[in-house]
Amino acid sequence: MHSGDIPHISVIVPVYNTEAHIEKCLNSLIGQTMQELEIILVDDCGTDRSMDIARRYADTDSRIRILEGTENTGVAQARNRGMEAARGEYTAFIDSDDWLSPDYFRLLYDKAIAEQADMVKGTFCAVWPDRTEPSGMNDSIRQCLQRYSFPGIAYTYAFWNTLYRTDMLRRHNIIFPALTHGEDMVFLVKALLHTNKLALEDGAVYYYNQRDTSASRTISTLYYDSLFKHYGMIADMLKQSELPRQDIIEYWQLAISQPLLTHHLHLAEEKNTDFHIWFFTQTRRLLMNGGYAYELYYHYPDPFYRSIFDMEPGQLASFYTKHHCRPDFSRKQEWSVRLWGIPILRIRRIGNTTKIRLFGISCAKIHHLPSASHSTYKLSS
What we know:
alpha/beta; globular; Spore Coat Polysaccharide Biosynthesis Protein SpsA, Chain A; single chain; 2 domains; 14 strands; 381 residues; nine-stranded mixed β-sheet
């Protein structure tokens, strides 16, 4: 590629304390069968020899550009700096401890051109010290799109093995928020909401190095703050989108609600009561601000409820009060559901009223009219 040519792809590589791995990463980049690349190495001011190695590679390959840094700002801001400097038609990301198959960018770019796609996702393999596990995410996305319009229901992470049209990112101001956790999910959801088309290319393989010392495995107080902040950002984007409500609720279930409960399960023995109170307070606020607590009540307890998911809330309320499915109030006045030992919802019958609480939130009341064959309901504000 000549110096004045516009590269097909700008590859952004944040560099921070990956001295033991960066050569393998850079070798996989300069050895790509597609040569029309610019490789942007962003110095995030680590404490090892990673950037010394990076500069040595830059001296031997004119496609490598180095963005010098003055302080450690974190991976989100490093990627944003790289995007600002990118000149390519498409933008790609790779972490400096990962590597790529030789035809990775050729396959992604050819698919992007052939299908006129704003995003093209490859596949990836998680690489552990003793094994390599191929991802089945692309197959999950294909199955998801048979039922839903939003691929994000199955494409919930791994933003890095995707090619993005640079103009799309800039027109919609798609950047990484300054968070210590979850910035990649926010970026990915916004990109998926604005893309004209997502294409899949199974032959392009990204090798995702699993390191116990990586930032994604480091837990701190800032981690928990970022956890709820990034879910809140996603909730706001979904509320403003034109996605079908069923798609949004399915995303909430798989990408937000279940992970939140899993987080709590893993933290249960490590944190005190005050933390648990704070955690569930934040969870309740997130659900209520998102506006999906009522629907999630039907979604949580049992996969059986998916079969009645197309019903309107009024129909669902009537469905419950006629005892066509659980709970059976003929034998008791209160019914509750737990997931992983965590209380999720409580349904209580008081006289002619059924009260429904989710995560301790009063989200619905169903009034049974003794002289009529149906019930009325209202959502709690």
